[in-house]
What does this fold into?
Amino acid sequence: MKTRMRQGNWEALAPYARSIREAVFIQEQGVSADLEDDGKDGGLNHEVIFK
It folds into this structure.
């Protein structure tokens, strides 16, 4: 199976990254949603790997 990585800002990648982070951090690890969404994502670069 081929994978690809996409890099970009939060605005571009939020639709993909948010669902992954909710599944991993909030649902699986029990991190509170308020802590996970700290408002700092907008100024950072993000990477998402697709299969």
The CA atoms of residues 4 and 50 lie 5 Å apart. The mean pLDDT is 94. The helical segments are 10-28, 33-36.
